[in-house]
Each structure stands twice: as C-alpha cells, then as structure tokens.
Amino acid sequence: MWFPGELDYEGMIIRPPSEARSIILQVTVGCSHNRCTFCGTYRQKRFRIKERQRVEADLERAARLYPDTRRLFVADGDALIMPMAHWRWLLPAIRERLPAVQRVGTYATARAVRKKTDEDLRWLRANGLRMVYLGLESGDDQTLRYVHKDSTAEQMVDAGRRLKAAGFTLSVTVLLGIAPDGRSGEHARETGRVLSAVDPQFVGALSVMLCEGSELVAQVQQGTHTIPGPAGYLRELREMLAHTELSGGQFMANHASNHLPLKVLLPAGRDDALALIDRALAGDVALKPEGLRAL
Ligand code: SF4
C-alpha cells in the first residue's frame, strides 16, 4: 500500500510484516537507543522527532493518496519514546485527516514504556494507538547485556504487562542467534519464561542477520560471536517454543529471516509445531536456503 517516495521518508524505513498494507508515517527519525549490537538499521540516522509541519503535510498527502486505508504505522525505530505532547496532537490529527484508519501501530522499547505513566498509556489507547510491537529480543539478562539492549528481563515483563493492561494489542519480537556463545539454551528458556509472563497476543521470532554497520558483523569477523547454522537456529527455536505458555496467542516464526516458516496457535498447536521442528532437525523437511533469508 505504501510507496517509498510518495510520503516524506528519511533513510531506510522498517516496518513489521503485518504492517505491509499500512500507511507508514515517519514521525521520528532513527532510534533513541541505537546501541543494539545486531541492529544496523538506524546507525546512519541521528534520533530526532520530525517537525510538526512536515508530518502534517505528510498526513495531507496520505489523505489524498490512501483515503480508504485502515491501518497506519508510526515509524521509526522506537516511536513510542516521543513525549506525550507530540502524541497529543498526532493521534487526533490522524483521526481527523484519515478517518478510515482503525488501527495505529508503532514500535516500542521497554524504556519508552517506562517513560509513560499508566494514564499516558490509557490515553494513547483511547485515542487510536492500538498495536504496539515491543522489542524483547531475549528474556535472558546476560544476553540482553551482551547485545546492549536498554532493559532487563524484569523491566521487559513490566513493560509488556503494562501495555496489555492498558488494552493494547501486543506483539513481542524475539531474536534467535544473538546469545553469547554457549548460552543458546538459557536465551531460549528465559525468553520463553518472559513471553509466558507477559502473555502477548503475538510473538514474532526472527533469526539474526548480519546487518551492515552493526557491531555484530565485527564480532563475527573477530571470532567472538558465532552465528548458528540452520540446526542451531532450529534447536533454539524449539527450546523457546517449548518454554512459551500463552493463554491464546500466535507464535510466528514465518519472517523472511527464518529457515523454517512457522505460525503456531498456542497453546493448541505447540505439539505439532515441535514435531515439525524435530522432523526438520532430522532432515525430513526442506529448509529455506541460507541465500534466500532476508530481513
Ligand atoms: S533493535 Fe530496536 S532498540 Fe535496538 S537499536 Fe535497533 S531499533 Fe533501536
């Protein structure tokens, strides 16, 4: 639905797969944290909030180009970090200019959630922000420190629970292949524990890719981090899924970066999914060739 160039974009724009048909409105540039070792996406961008006039001009353009589009995604990397003063004009402006939009989504870090009060979160939810994509990556504190995330596992649990309590639809992203060497099992099990404690509606499990400009590339070249092979990714995914208890949610590992596309309805679909991973580990199911994996 969105076409780079038609709206006002600075640099590369990233959005979740489920926002493929959404209007992508870039309100912030880059990521305020911008330190995760595996993430090179925003290294060339210095974080800032775009001028209100530019965003309003973009909303006018979007209203002309996509008047019937029902979803809108606020970019870039952790746009929830914007102070409430910005959200307080933005969400009513989206409602006014794009009345067909029924769902606004954004990326969030746990730190961005910490900077919002429960009342702020409820205001955002009541004014159209419905979908939040929270970057957990790992529930293992050692792995979180290793990849320079901005929060501990318990801070992630708190952020996820507060978002759910405020009524957001919550999608939590986790990342395979980022644990320090020898710590894949702990990363998988602790991530399952945090996911179970938060109990989001959606989990998106991605496999780490080497992104130009990221520290991970240097770590791999220096031999201090080993990227798992397909079997390593699958074993980690299996362990994570086996330790994830959701009361009713989707665990998706069908991103372009994954070797074995999986979409699992939990709790009912877990045993079948684990059996499929076992068959893949035994070589009985074809995996996506390494060269076809993508971000
Ligand atoms: S992974 Fe998320 S929080 Fe970390 S640098 Fe990238 S956009 Fe920022």
CATH H level, superfamily name: Aldolase class I
CATH class categorisation: Alpha Beta
Element order: H for helix, E for strand:
EEEHEHEHHEHHEHEHHEEH
Tell me the structural class: alpha/beta
Question: So what's the overall shape?
Answer: globular
Number of domains: 1
Description:
- The chain is of the alpha/beta class.
- The chain has one domain (17-289): TIM Barrel (Alpha-Beta Barrel).
- The chain has helices spanning 52-65, 84-97, 110-114, 118-126, 141-146, 153-165, 184-198, 215-222, 230-242, 270-281; strands at 23-26, 28-29, 48-49, 71-75, 103-108, 129-137, 169-176, 202-207, 249-252, 263-266.
- The strands form two sheets. It has an eight-stranded mixed β-sheet. Strands 2-3 form a two-stranded antiparallel ribbon.
- It is globular and about 55 Å long.
- It binds iron/sulfur cluster.
Can you give keywords for this protein?
alpha/beta; 10 helices; binds iron/sulfur cluster; 295 residues
TL;DR?
The protein is an alpha/beta fold. The chain has a single domain, classed as Aldolase class I (TIM Barrel), CATH 3.20.20.70.
Q: Which secondary structure elements does this structure contain, and how are they paired or packed?
A:
Layout: E1 23-26, E2 28-29, E3 48-49, H1 52-65, E4 71-75, H2 84-97, E5 103-108, H3 110-114, H4 118-126, E6 129-137, H5 141-146, H6 153-165, E7 169-176, H7 184-198, E8 202-207, H8 215-222, H9 230-242, E9 249-252, E10 263-266, H10 270-281
Parallel strand pairs: 1-4, 4-5, 5-6, 6-7, 7-8, 8-9
Antiparallel strand pairs: 2-3, 9-10
Helix pairs in contact: 1-2, 6-7, 7-9, 9-10
The protein binds iron/sulfur cluster.
